[in-house]
Specification:
By secondary structure, the chain is mainly β. Helix content is 5%, strand content 56%. Strand 5 (60-63) and strand 6 (66-70) form a beta hairpin.
Length: 172
């Protein structure tokens, strides 16, 4: 196995779009900041360390309009994945899509389009106009505060459990 972690600061953008590749995940954390700090974790596995390092070097990370990862096709003996942990301003708009990886968003208020094919979605303390859908994974929502802040929440899972927790002082 081989692993690499990269950290980069980007200017704030109207909508943060992230596509981490076939097996990658995205974790968004609200922070008191005006820019975006991206922690990119690249992982590769193969029969030997040399092969894993070769795979790791062939992964391409694009931090342009859409934060994305691409790499070599997966063979029988190894694979790769890229996960993003991203610290954003508290009021941010998100467009996140994964295939076989998780999505987590904590403390962000904004317009959100969140879609996971085969991964879980976990939302905590979010607000705004939030649309979250997972096809084959669990969906967890933890709402905080006294009321919803924003237009609303539309959360759907097709083949997974749904858990909603209200932890505010009074929900009505």
């Amino acid at each position: 196995n081989a692993c690499d972690v990269r950290v980069q600061t980007l200017p704030r953008r109207d909508v943060l779009r992230v596509r981490p590749g076939n097996n990658g995940g995205v974790h968004i954390v609200a922070d008191d900041r005006n820019d975006i700090e991206v922690h990119t974790r690249l992982q590769a596995s193969a029969e030997s360390r040399n092969e894993a390092n070769t795979t790791l070097r062939s992964i391409d990370i694009d931090l342009g309009a859409t934060l994305s990862a691409s790499g070599p096709g997966r063979d029988m003996d190894g694979g790769w994945s890229v996960s993003f942990v991203i610290y954003v301003p508290r009021n941010s708009n998100l467009d996140l899509e994964t295939h076989n990886g998780p999505i987590a968003v904590r403390g962000v208020v904004g317009r959100m389009e969140l879609s996971a094919q085969n991964g879980p979605i976990q939302l905590s303390g979010v607000g705004g106009d939030v649309h979250a859908e997972t096809r084959n994974g669990p969906l967890q929502v933890r709402l905080t505060g006294a009321r919803w802040n924003g237009a609303g929440l539309n959360a759907e899972t097709q083949n997974g459990p749904l858990q909603v927790r209200l932890t505010g002082s009074k929900w009505n």
